[in-house]
Design a protein that fits this description.
The complex is a heterodimer of chains A (696) and B (154). By secondary structure, chain A is an alpha+beta fold. Chain A folds into 5 domains: 141 residues, Four Helix Bundle (Hemerythrin (Met), subunit A) (Up-down Bundle); 144 residues, Histidine kinase CheA-like, P2 response regulator-binding domain (Alpha-Beta Plaits), CATH 3.30.70.1110; 60 residues, Orthogonal Bundle (Helix Hairpins); 182 residues, Histidine kinase-like ATPase, C-terminal domain (Heat Shock Protein 90, 2-Layer Sandwich), CATH 3.30.565.10; 128 residues, CheA-289, Domain 4 (OB fold (Dihydrolipoamide Acetyltransferase, E2P)), CATH 2.40.50.180. In chain A, 47% of the residues lie in helices and 22% in strands. In chain A, the strands form 5 sheets. A 6-stranded mixed beta sheet of chain A has the order 14-18-19-17-16-15. In chain A, helix 1 runs antiparallel to helix 2, helix 4 runs antiparallel to helix 5 and helix 16 packs parallel to helix 17. Chain A starts with 6 loop residues before the first helix and ends in a 6-residue tail after the last strand. Chain B has one domain: Beta Barrel (OB fold (Dihydrolipoamide Acetyltransferase, E2P)). Chain B has 3 helices and 11 strands. In chain B, strands 8-1-2-11-10-9 form a 6-stranded mixed beta sheet. A 5-stranded mixed beta sheet of chain B has the order 3-6-7-5-4. The chains are: A alpha+beta (696), B mainly beta (154).
Chain lengths: 696, 154
């Protein structure tokens, strides 16, 4: 079978499963007895194995197989989860990731057999099995043998091979006692069938009209993902008889054959259920729901059913490039719309009213279209931050420090391109906090009145048109004097500068290239390729990064990113006869100020706006053009804000609000910080976008 | 046949005028030639970058070839043109030239390579001189012409 066309899907899904496993195993480490987590891990491992097998990646399959076996035993209770198992499983996940990397780069899994991990995994199995009285090695091997033997006996009636959990037996017992039929069915789909999963779904649906499906092999999830050959089996609890169920299943088209029959529920299970019912409710009423025990069982029956019927996955994987094309088209559309608006306003014709109406409608449509396309491109940062708990756990062992990572706002959404890029800078900041932030000396932490284990926080939230991601630690904070000393040492600043420098300015030195204050270079951070890379990466995403720190208390790194990259709402202004756009997200208010209200403080012009002193910046001066306003005219001041800092930009004329498409100025224009890009106006003219953040 | 052969080896250049002198631009780099249009000034850039224009929805920077080559800037005339060239590494850039003359085809043996002279400002923009019927054409080395120290490497 040619599987190359599935490679991308395989890679994506494997990544998801691995991430899921990482998260679940971390959880398991916290609560080793949580059955839900164990089941989840087992399922993920199982899916991984199946997928690797289908794609023909044998080594990957072997490794996941052994991992699955371990969790199979854990699930059965024959081995207990301990830290050795968790460590090995993490190694196993790393190995799987390595396979995946190989596959991604060369479509081949590589030749690493990872024997040591496999050996370790099997070691748990043997050791664990022996301890738990179950015969050594027996669990998987014997089970397989039995299953195979049974398979031969059962022939077409594969449902006879389904083994039941105790809970399921219980449910069946109860159903039997309540006079229901328990029917096993095996459905064969025509081999020519293209949408096997869809057919299977229809079969499930039809059968569910008659009764309740309590077990299916493979699981409902696997069937939905088309992870079955041409047949699947299920056990149904129903009032109808076997033939009716078989007929129902057959009624679905493209089904080759359906076989089935009554299931022999072990007498003990029936008796057990019956006696319970009898005890709880001596009066032989059929209204089972009134008695406690069957109600519990009914709940039990519902629970697996809920799990078996996963939320229908209504997602489509789309190549990001296709979205980019779509986005570009929307941009073009908006530019075209802007031209129409411009044309209509210059048109003084009698029908211009009508045209305006149409244009307004077009405007609504394009705005909505733009929003939808943007939303399609938005993904939660979860996919990036999910790997951090694992990273901190590993760092903990490596650095021999106790610390915890607390995350919030993982569901915050950002443009896909931003999410893809933000991982490295965040990882760097977290490592930084773990390595340099949290004090290695536990006594020192106690002295400072902090708990022994350090805390690192990763908080994400939306703030207007920005998304803010904060990395915070309760560690040592940044030693401003050490930074200054280092900068002096490196010749970055002079003695005089060092003395004059405020703490904030000094801390910002950290973002200079090749600046690492780590006294010892470790392999976690501190090779000097640090914060400057973080800064430039964030800035490349039109974001910014800030740090606040207090020696001995901790530091907070704040990353601020724009929600959308390509299209923004702006205020169009004129300065010295030239048109500029100011992003609306930065703008607080617009004020008209009398020239006499402008005061000077330390040679800087400021205004007093309702009790707040705000520095003002004459845009014509920074942009290098002549203002065409007379000296005594009132000033139009656009109050912009960045974080908690504000500034007033003096402009000549306001022309209105406009939605614009950001275009790059290209690489020839040495990106002056002041101008973040350009846009094309309705009449084809180019207007520059002023970045107020660079001015504050 | 002989003529064909000569022709196939030849490289075509667009002959442009800068004052009295003629320069050649390899036609394979030329994306477009447009009449002057309104240029949006960009603050805080090198003086020879006159600003940006909109070429079919794309923002393209415009450079004054005169200023870049150390010549005196002149007023726009009827014959002034923007030659939009496309460089592999840095994308499109427009050059303001005094006039566009014609297309000439030059073979290897019609081109005399110039020697690098560090003292002469203008020569390092020229990689050779082509001999054509009615005079000489200095062939522009577009990499040097469009290079700017402050350009960000990517």
């Amino acid at each position: 079978m040619d599987v190359s066309q599935y490679l991308e899907v395989f890679i994506d899904e494997t990544k998801e499963h691995l991430q899921n496993l990482n998260t679940q195993i971390l959880e398991l480490e916290q609560s080793p007895d949580d059955m839900d987590t164990i089941n989840e891990i087992f399922r993920a491992a199982h899916s991984l194995k199946g997928m690797a097998g289908t794609m023909g990646y044998k080594r990957m399959q072997n490794l996941t197989h052994d991992m699955e076996n371990v969790f199979s035993s854990v699930r059965e209770g024959s081995i207990k989860v301990n830290s050795a198992i968790v460590d090995t499983v993490f190694q196993c996940l790393d190995a799987l990731e390595e396979y995946l990397d190989n596959i991604q780069s060369s479509a081949d899994e590589g030749t690493n057999e990872n024997e040591t991990i496999i050996k370790a995994l099997n070691g748990f199995l043997n050791g664990g099995a022996a301890e738990a009285e179950a015969p050594a090695k027996a669990a998987p091997a014997a089970e397989n043998a039995v299953a195979e033997a049974a398979a031969e006996d059962a022939g077409e009636n594969k449902w006879q091979n389904i083994s039941f959990s105790e809970e399921q037996l219980h449910v069946m017992g109860a159903a039997k006692a309540a006079g229901k039929n328990i029917i096993g069915v095996t459905v064969y789909v025509q081999e020519a069938c293209i949408l096997k999963a869809a057919r299977a779904f229809l079969v499930f649906k039809t059968v569910e009209e008659l009764g309740e499906i309590i077990v299916s092999v493979p699981s409902a999830q696997d069937i939905e993902d088309e992870k079955f050959d041409y047949d699947f089996s299920m056990i149904v609890v129903t009032d109808a008889d076997a033939n009716k169920v078989i007929e129902a299943a057959k009624s679905v088209s493209e089904i080759a054959k359906v076989v089935g029959g009554d299931v022999n529920v072990p007498a003990s299970a029936v008796a057990d259920a019956a006696s319970k019912e009898a005890n709880d409710k001596p009066a032989n009423t059929p209204a089972v729901a009134q008695s406690n025990a069957p109600a519990d069982q009914a709940a039990g029956a519902n629970k697996p059913a809920e799990k078996k019927k996963p939320v229908v996955n209504r997602t489509v994987r789309v190549d990001i490039e296709k979205l980019d094309v779509l986005m570009n088209l929307v941009s073009e559309l908006i530019i075209a719309k802007n031209s129409l608006v411009a044309a209509a306003t210059s048109n003084t014709d009698a029908n211009s009213n009508e045209i305006n109406e149409h244009i307004e409608y077009l405007e609504t449509v394009t705005t909505n279209l733009h929003e939808s396309v943007m939303k399609v491109r938005m993904v939660p940062i979860e996919s990036v931050v999910n790997k951090f708990p694992r990273m901190i756990r590993d760092l903990q062992k490596k650095l021999n420090k106790k610390m915890e990572l607390y995350m919030s706002g993982e569901e915050t959404e950002l443009d896909r391109t931003v999410v893809d890029e933000i991982g490295d800078p965040l990882m760097h900041l977290l490592r930084n906090s773990a390595d340099h932030g949290i004090e290695a000396d536990v006594e020192l932490r106690k002295e400072r009145g902090k708990p022994e284990a350090g805390s690192i926080f990763l908080d994400a939230y939306q703030d207007g048109n920005n998304v803010v991601i904060e990395v915070r630690d309760d560690g040592n904070g940044i030693d401003v004097n050490a930074v200054k000393a280092k900068a002096l040492d490196r010749g970055v600043i002079t003695e005089e500068q060092a003395n004059q420098m405020s703490d904030d300015e000094a801390v910002n030195l950290l973002f200079l290239p090749s600046f690492s204050t780590a006294k010892v270079v470790s392999d976690i951070s501190g090779r000097g390729v640090g914060l400057d890379v973080v800064k430039s990466k964030i800035e490349a995403l039109s974001g910014e990064v800030e740090v606040k720190t207090q020696l001995g208390v901790g530091s907070t790194w704040t990353i601020r990113l724009p929600l959308t990259l390509a299209i923004i709402q702006t205020l169009m202004v004129v300065v010295g006869g030239e048109k500029y756009a100011i992003p609306l997200s930065n703008i607080q208010t617009i004020e008209s100020i009398k020239p006499s209200d402008v005061k000077t403080v330390q040679q800087k012009e400021v205004i007093n706006l309702r009790g707040t002193i705000i520095p003002i910046i004459r845009l014509n001066e920074v942009l290098g053009c002549q203002s065409d306003k007379a000296e005594d005219e009132d000033l139009v001041v656009v109050i912009v804000k960045k974080g908690d800092k504000m500034a007033g930009l003096v402009i000549d004329v306001l022309t209105g609000q406009q939605e614009i498409v950001i275009k790059s100025l290209g690489k020839y224009i040495n990106k002056s910080k002041l101008i973040s890009g350009a846009t094309i106006l309705g009449n084809g003219e180019v207007a520059l976008i002023v970045d107020p953040n660079a001015l504050i | 046949m002989d003529e064909m052969k000569v022709y196939s080896e030849a490289v075509q250049y667009i002959k442009i005028a800068m004052g009295p002198e003629m320069y050649g631009i390899d036609i394979s780099y030329v994306d477009n030639i447009v009449r002057p249009q309104q240029v949006t000034r960009v603050p805080n850039v090198a003086p020879y970058i006159k600003g940006v224009i909109n070429i079919r929805g794309e923002i393209v920077p415009i450079m004054s070839l005169r200023l870049k080559m150390g010549l005196e800037e002149i007023e726009e005339t009827k014959s002034t043109r923007f030659i939009i060239i496309k460089m592999e590494k840095y994308g499109k850039i427009g050059l303001i030239v005094d006039a566009v003359k014609e297309v000439v085809a030059l073979t290897e043996d019609q081109i005399e390579k110039t020697k690098f002279d560090a003292n002469d400002e203008t020569t390092h923009f020229v990689f050779g001189v082509g001999k054509v019927e009615n005079g000489l054409v200095s062939l522009l080395d577009l990499d040097t012409v469009t290079y700017d120290k402050s350009m960000k490497e990517e």
